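Hi, here's the filled form for the chain we discussed.

Project: internal
Contact: R.S.
Residues: 74
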Amino acid sequence: MQNGTDLYALDISGASFTKACGGPCTEGCVTLARIGEDAWALGDSKRPDVEPLRFTTEELDAVGIDPARFGLGA
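And the returned structure, exactly as it came back:
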């Protein structure tokens, strides 16, 4: 399993982010990309200049974020 420090050492320059919107996405859309075996980057499509936050699969699960909602497999 990755730890928080390792997650930010991963290169995400080629990551493919996918949106998951619950509505018209007028305020902002959460984006998610798999960046490693047990690693994810969570961003905001309305603020592409902000560095995405990074989480393990366990951390995403703990806060109720399901990669399947983004069309991604955990």
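Let me know if anything looks off before we file it.
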